Amino acid sequence: MKKISLLTIIVFHICNIGMIALYLFPGSILGWAIYDDFQKQPQITTDFIVSINHFYAFMTLSFLGLISFTRKKFKILFYYLFSISIVLELFHIIIPKRSFEYTDLFGNFLGVFFIFILSNLYKFFKEY
Known about the structure:
mainly alpha; globular
């Protein structure tokens, strides 16, 4: 079990570093890789009120963090994830070829919040 836990922690940290790199790069690395165009963003599904790509990214990162760390580190993990979801989007104000968008910010925040609520519901019903 320790090997699985160590593996998920490593995967979480790699994904975290990868997401930070994607966020701070001036342009779209994924757009370049898929379309050979730094200006074009790939879209997984159409946006609905919030940026779905951002929602999926932070939901996945939050889930990886949730399964990687113990209950003792639960609060610290979600404080970190909520903070980074806001700070990374705010950096888009100063990064060239990037722009701050409220829909992206809300997508980031809701991705973390969704996993936070699911984990608390699971904890509540597990104890009930």
